[in-house]
Specification:
The protein has four domains: 183 residues, Immunoglobulin-like (Sandwich); 35 residues, no CATH class; 40 residues, no CATH class; 107 residues, no CATH class. 13% of the residues lie in helices and 31% in strands. The strands form six sheets. Strands 2, 4, 6, 7, 9, 10, 11 and 13 form an eight-stranded mixed beta sheet that branches. The protein has a five-stranded mixed beta sheet with strand order 5-8-3-1-12, with no helix packed on it. The protein is elongated, with a radius of gyration of 30 Å. The protein starts with a helix and ends in a 7-residue tail after the last strand. The relative contact order is 0.11.
């Protein structure tokens, strides 16, 4: 008997230590764990009659999934409400711990509550609105629908009301797996239950295959193939980990401050040579760089136009329209004055416009113009904006 008690105390201690460790971890959205894409929903079961003599309703939960969850109740009777972790049928969750909070108006009353997990560390004041709790199980939970908590609630009057699952104030809304250290996945869908009004069940969506994506910066992100393509990355295959993928900075044409084109990687182009990187695998023949020795229309942030060389235009923080058929400053081809927030590039002194006005006017004359090409997910390095030629038939 004593041996059983000691084992129970050890299990309890391990679970408490696990919860403490989870509280110290920081969520990193760049890494996806086995519990990615899961939801935490609320489900009311009017068939269960609440009594103060019954201590635990978790074993009373019938067969329910996200699609069949009841998210609306009527009247002022006390109902038993379950918080359920739910996952797609095609995934294999491994939930060891969960953190979340509640939000509800004053006319709702919670008169009893209990965790379906083995151990709980909650904020003082829980389960009042605005507070949160963290739970852990001694054994990892692997079923598609996992009972997490139950509440006995009723509407004390004053019209309809909504109780919502929200993030824990300190630990967010997360699932933790059983690895060491644990991987935390953000709970993607947070459900709600309505009293005399509809609630919501944000059921997990269809699986989107993802894998290692090498970005132009040389960093790796776990993305879908579509997301990887959108940021000009190289996709290495579904379920391929960034930990086993070696990425290098992308190589392509680099326009040096002199106007000369050289094939360099994006980091060397910007940091070592002060150039403007054009894009992955773009060659230097023919050169995509402007000829700064030519004269042409130069637009300034004020909206003024001056006929000078490309080099002078660049030195004076201008936008060079370059070798164009019309090229004159009359009519003025320049965009409206640069609005607040359009900063100059860190490369040289050239002004790189991001406005559609500049784009449209440049396109109408077949001009070369500078525009910011978005490169999402460049985490550690600052990469200058790129150069591209705009054609009247296909404005950017």
């Amino acid at each position: 008997m004593k041996s059983t008690s000691v084992r129970g105390e050890r299990v309890a201690l391990r679970s408490v230590v696990f919860l403490v460790l989870i509280a110290l971890l920081h969520f990193d959205s760049g890494w996806a764990g086995v519990n990615q894409g899961g939801a935490l929903i609320l489900h009311a079961d009017p068939s269960l009659e609440f009594t103060t003599t019954r201590l635990d309703y978790c074993p009373e939960l019938g067969t329910v999934d996200c699609a069949s969850a009841a998210t609306e109740v009527s009247g002022g009777e006390t109902v038993v409400v379950f918080a359920l972790a739910t996952f797609r049928a095609d995934v294999s969750p491994r939930v060891r711990a969960v953190s979340f909070g509640l939000r509800y108006p004053q006319n709702l009353r919670v008169i009893a509550h209990r965790a379906c997990a083995d151990f709980e560390i909650c904020q003082a004041g829980w389960p009042r609105s605005g507070y949160g709790t963290a739970l852990s199980w001694s054994a990892v939970q692997t079923q598609p629908t996992i009972p997490v908590y139950w509440f006995a609630m009723y509407n004390a009057g004053g019209g309809s009301a909504l109780v919502e699952i929200v993030a824990h104030g300190a630990q967010g809304a997360t699932f933790a797996d059983d690895t060491t250290p644990a991987t935390l996945d953000r709970i993607e869908g947070l459900g709600s239950l309505g009293f005399d009004r509809p609630g919501a069940t944000p059921c997990p969506g269809p699986s989107i295959p993802s894998g290692a994506c090498c970005l132009v910066s040389g960093d790796c992100e776990f993305l879908s193939e579509e997301e990887c393509t959108a940021v000009s990355g190289i996709y290495h295959g579904n379920s391929v980990s960034c930990e086993t993928t070696f990425c290098t900075p992308a190589v392509g044409a680099c326009c040096l401050p002199s106007g000369v084109c050289q094939v360099l990687n994006i980091i060397a182009c910007s940091e070592a040579h002060g150039g403007i990187w054009i894009g992955r695998d773009i060659p230097c023949a023919p050169s995509p760089c402007p000829d700064f020795e030519l004269t042409g229309a130069c637009c300034f942030p004020s909206g003024a136009c001056t006929w000078i060389s490309g080099r002078e235009c660049r030195e004076q923080d201008g936008l060079f329209f370059g070798n164009v058929e019309y090229g004159a400053c009359d009519p003025n081809p320049c965009p409206s004055p640069r609005p607040s927030g359009h900063a100059a590039s860190s490369v040289g002194s050239a002004w790189f416009s991001t406005g559609m006005t500049a784009s449209s006017k440049a396109a109408s004359r077949g001009a070369t113009w500078f525009s910011a090409i978005p490169v999402p997910a460049l985490k550690r390095r600052s990469v200058p904006v790129a150069l591209r030629t705009v054609r009247a038939s296909s404005p950017p």
